[in-house]
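ok posting inputs for the beta-D-mannopyranose job
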Amino acid sequence: MQHKITKRSFLITTATAAAAAFVWEPVFSLAQAATTLATPRRLKLDGDWQLSQAGKNDWIPAIVPGGAYTDLLAAGKIPDPFYRDNEKSVQWVGDSDWIYRRAFDVSADVLKNDRVLLRCEGLDTLAKIKINGVDAGNADNMFRLWEFDVKTLLHVGENSIEVFFESPATYFKQRDTDQAPDKWIKGRAWVRKEPCSYGWDWGPVLPSCGIWKNISLETFNQARIADVLIRQNHSADGVTLDVEVNAEVVRKTTNPFKAKVTALHESKSIVETMIQISKGQGSGELKIEKPKLWWPAGMGEQPLYTVHVELLDADGETIDSTSKRIGLRELKAILPQGDSPLHFEVNGVPFFAKGANWIPADSFPTRVTPEMSRRYVADAAAVNMNVLRFWGGGYYEDDALFDACDELGICVWLDFKFACGAYPAFDEKFMENVKLEARDNLQRLRHHPCIAVWCGNNEISLSWWEGPTWGPNRMSTADYDKLFKDLLASQVRKFAPDANYVSGSPDCGDTHYWEVWHGPKNFDAYRTQNGFMSEFGYQSFPELKTVQSFTNESDRASIASPVMSWHQRSGGVEGNQKIVAMILNYFKPPKDFETTLWLSQIVQGIGIKLGAEYWRQTMPKSMGCVFWQYNDCWPGMSWSSVDYFGRWKALHYMARKFYAPILVSGLENLKDGTIDIFVTSDRLENQNGKLTWNVTDLDGNSLLKESTDLEIPARKSQKAKTLSLQDQIQKLGANGFLTWLKVEVDGETVSENMVSFALPKELKLSDPKFATVVTETADGFSVTVKSEKLALWAWLGLENADAKFSDNFFHVTPETTRTILIQPKQPMSKNEFVETLRVRSVFDTHL
Ligand code: BMA
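and the output
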């Protein structure tokens, strides 16, 4: 984390437009010490560049950080790759070589520094850099931080930089042909680049290319801070921070360097110490008394501390500084032992992981802004999640995403970026590259309190022991161990010694359960599993507004149209048919295209809810439910709960209920005519509550309504009651009634649920006849929804606008009135709102 507070314009000349507008800034500075201009300093080279296909000399404006696709799109040179099947017509971009260039000015002062480095925080991927036409260095790993000594290549006045990117496709082809057959690893596995950029079963083939992170000149004198490692020792009388500072010394002085280390909380210094740096290294201790501990969402607060380090030269002048934001906590992944499954533990307290799997939020990584990252994390916390797994086929995410997780208490299961394929662990150069990639990312990210576990890879273990699952690739057990059990494990031990590491997922006692989507099973199969469910999921269609963004009207004639199938990467048209097949298992045939989209979301929600509730019921036999998947990288069909545009699908609303801190849920058994009622609590304290069950007919008339007082023990699941409903089944049929569950604590409803012995399509529902009352609120509208008859999975929508809904896809009975708060994204009058508001339920989905 950089704290930039002083910005000093340091314009050297304005020889060319492209060379103007640099901003020198201190790399790090402490908020309280705004007047001290620390070195090193960075001359940002981000901003306006030019881009041309190699050999074409056809330059267009480019933005850095950025990428070739987004620059070409902005220049009107390619169509939107997400629209219809345009992806096909832009494949040449990934198959071509590209050159980025710009001019920049350098002053005599810059060249007086001991060191002048070109610092590239991300080059995607096979890059050759020239400064003033002379080779400055090469890069071959998108995930690494690259620094090159460039002092001797620069001169006073205008300079030029050019970065040539070779298409990885050319390199892949070469590797595919020049390898010995017994080490036949797919060409692309050799290149350290975002795996899913070459397509995945939810995303397009759009391999990004370009300077995708900040680029700058960094200058320094005498020494700079190379690394700061903070370790925490928790004891009864406080938390001791062991701080290790490594300095890169380039000019020796007779007196040693020192480092002043300060711990701050809420911007106030609370304790400080001075460390002697000898031979570039030093360490010291800071004791934080009465520490405020960091907790995951739902378990407590997320107080954050800052550790600020200033490197002082022999004269006591600050020559470099850095800040790391930390949280005081012990967060562990406990491996399975006996009956106890894999689980997380924070500050000595085991907790049930509730969450989803995160994939890159855009095919073009630089389009993801810190605000978007924050919104995604806030939307996870809003539905009672406490964990996101950053899956291994993407890229190591920006700090902004981790910052948001730190602030909102979302624990991160962090995969290294290896997924579903074999990697050439037998090759020393490859292993060295990975070693440095791991170092760079561990150093960058390890201080984030949200990181619960580092994990070697996604699903590679499934490949080697089952045989060549991934085509003709081969990765021996020995090579797997070398990469995931030795190399990455030892890098974590070295650079994040207090962190947890597991070699892979599912290779640590967790389960990826795919027999429902990829196999032929029904959702009920989830009830055969236990443990830590780190992946399971079912697909749905995004809502109409999202579908409209990538289709024209004729594409929307059918879910099987070529464009709808193109945006379905798990089986094309068959994938879409699979979604519909599951709709038909549950509901009567949808009446039209739009209804098909909505019903698919409801079915997806029903399925994931069934699994999540079961695993929460069976806690502590199960200790984690992380569904696949949270988000999307483009608009299309997928397992996501929030679509590419950030629109919540039905599943996301349902997640808020099935992940609620106290959950009431049912386990129905038609054969016995029973419903087991479970009350599951993630709360840290015992509570007293009231459990109510209400059996109603399909008009909502109560047939049996009872309540009982209930103790709800902390962090436990209990079977609170078994209902015997054989009589009702005999009299009314399994499809003649529904059972409504409710738990109240201190008079407030904390969880509600509905259990049915019959499928929704077997219920004879009448027109609910909605009545709504709309009132204006400070930031939108409040809509009170009543119905004359039962309305199942009712949802509100605005025809022509996006909005945030406090709830959706809920049931309304004649007894229960629902009030939903709606904040339209764009301001609108009450009349406009009423005009565009629609209330629907399952009754409206079929003819
Ligand atoms: C998993 C993931 C992804 C994939 C998903 C859906 O196993 O790890 O590789 O997208 O299944 O098939």
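notes: The chain is about 20% helix and 35% strand. Confidence is low (pLDDT under 50) at residues 1-38.
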